[in-house]
Amino acid sequence: MITPTSTTSHLIAEGFHALSDPIIISVIEFLRQSELCVCDLCNALEISQSKLSFHLKNLKEANLVNACQEGRCIYYGLNLSQFQVLEHYLANIHGNSVSSTPHSCCE
């Protein structure tokens, strides 16, 4: 059974996994400036459409981008609310972590 907590955990894991790819980071940097269609992203990144489609699929599965079709073009933009989920997760780790002294075996 999938619970809201497991769904959130899954989305967080998918998000960080997607962000571990340098091409995806480049895509995000372009999308930070404006929504772009696939052909514009291909040209900007100098990669094939099939390679970009693979990375966009990962971004969509991680809920990090939104897609909007206009005619024959699909435009992609950042899903800022999902980035906020990741940011909130990291902030909670930093804010709620217990400081501990290192064990002698870790020194």
Give your account of this protein's structure.
- This protein is α+β, with helices and mostly antiparallel strands.
- It has a single domain, classed as Orthogonal Bundle (Arc Repressor Mutant, subunit A), CATH 1.10.10.10.
- The protein is built from 5 helices and 3 strands, in the order ααβααββα.
- The protein has a 3-stranded antiparallel beta sheet with strand order 1-3-2.
- A hairpin with a 2-residue loop joins β2 and β3 (73-78).
- It is elongated, with a radius of gyration of 18 Å.
User: How many E strands?
Assistant: 3
- Number of separate domains: 1
- Structural class determined from secondary elements: alpha+beta
- The proportion of residues in beta strands is 5-15%
Record the strand order, biggest sheet.
1-3-2
Radius of gyration: 18 Å
Residues in helix, %: 55-70%
CATH level-four homologous superfamily name: Winged helix-like DNA-binding domain superfamily/Winged helix DNA-binding domain
Let me know the average pLDDT. Answer: 87
Q: State the order of secondary-structure elements, H for helix, E for strand.
A: HHEHHEEH
Bulk shape: elongated
Query: Roughly how many Å apart are the termini?
Result: 42 Å
Largest sheet: 3 strands, antiparallel
Per DSSP, the total helix count is 5
CATH topology: Arc Repressor Mutant, subunit A
The CATH class name reads Mainly Alpha
Regions with little confidence, pLDDT below 50 for 5+ residues? none
The CATH architecture term is: Orthogonal Bundle
